[in-house]
Design goal:
The complex is a heterodimer of chains A (190) and B (293). Chain A has a single domain, classed as Rossmann fold (3-Layer(aba) Sandwich). In chain A, 24% of the residues lie in helices and 32% in strands. Chain B is of the alpha/beta class. Helices cover 43% and strands 13% of the residues of chain B. Chain B is globular and about 55 Å long.
Amino acid sequence: MLRIGVLGLQGDFREHVEMLSFLGVETLVVKLPEDLDLVDGLIIPGGESTTMGRVMENVGLKEPLVEKIKNGLPVYGTCAGMILLSKRVVDHDQPLLGVLDTEVERNAYGRQVESFEVDIEIQAIGEKPFKAVFIRAPRIVKHGENVEVLAEYGGDPILVREENILASSFHPELTKDTRIHEYFLRMVEK
Amino acid sequence: MEVYKGTWMVKKGFAEMFKGGVIMDVTNAEQAKIAEEAGAVAVMALERVPADIRKAGGVARMASIKKIKEIMEAVSIPVMAKVRIGHMAEARILEELGVDFIDESEVLTPADDKFHINKHEYKVPFVCGARDLGEALRRIAEGAAMIRTKGEAGTGNIVEAVKHMRRVQDEIRKVVNMPEEELVKEAKELGAPVELLREVKRLGRLPVVNFAAGGVATPADAALMMMLGADGVFVGSGIFKSKDPRKMARAIVMAVTYWDNPKILLKVSEDIGEPMPGLDVNELEIRMQERGW
């Protein structure tokens, strides 16, 4: 049976755990380097990317995690998780995993009063629209040619995949729609 | 494609992102940068930290706009600011300014001695203080997207924070175990809407994020509040009234993530410098926690 880790340093990891449990998947909240050996895939939740990055460095989790992802561990990052996976952040110096060939701009849609929800189309998970919740969301401003764009909003990529790495600038875990998590589980099963 | 802003999902969801994090009081751009660097999930922009508000006395109001702007420009993490209880105009001004969260706070002098702000009307989310489940649910009914237990701000004394967190958790456990037919009477006694009590019963927790506040002065204090069931902590005076704010801030961030790991707690508790001086809560002239209705 699959066991999916959810990085539990900070952020809305509970919502990811609840969604995975609803899908009948065993979960583990990952907080230490040794936890990484116990999981078949990892979700990096929403939250504050600078906080997660600092804590990861302080506890020696960053390097082993980068190594795991480079060796093929399937990983899915939402919002702050997407920032951490990215190679570059516009105008901001912070610890990053740097494994996804994207450059992101933080808070690109504005401050909290500009946070929004909107129905979007994602062909990869079916015809029915997906309610995407954007909270002080990052925007992908550049991406390499190996990065596949699975969904766009306003002309910008919002759900992308590069090999074993999936990332979204929005938060499926805040909704009841499990389709993106199911997509990720299919990536893990392969 | 219809775009919706300021929805309950967006407000409550934003608060969920703070979980497992530390929100730090700061009074200028330099402190805000230290907080961000240490790993704070947000900063609270203030004219003075609560310990100094307590000393200064008089009427404590919303911070100056210049001060809040300075802090908003200094950091990439969310910036919160406080308004006086019931002060709808201060709240509209801060919403227009674009602060990310408003704290309708007992630390400032109340503007209304009977009513709080109707927070549903705003696009910006609010956090409010509470000492028990009834007070927490009244604030949620008014639209608060996040709760913090009050403690006693500016004292560096954790005892009131513990008391309030224990009370809220005890009352939640009571509701969870209560048969449905007793809920209406319980709602009457708590002074809270029965619909919200039903939600508490279903979830086994508050329907919004619940942080601890008011008295956190060390990494151990922060870990204690997490052990008692807090989703995260606010640290007011505890960081910038300590001898070495950088170290203290970093240690408290680590303690909130690793509250259940004594090895790491020990490690981060070494070499943090002198914490802020503490006050006996029985000798206070003003008990801020009693503000709020």
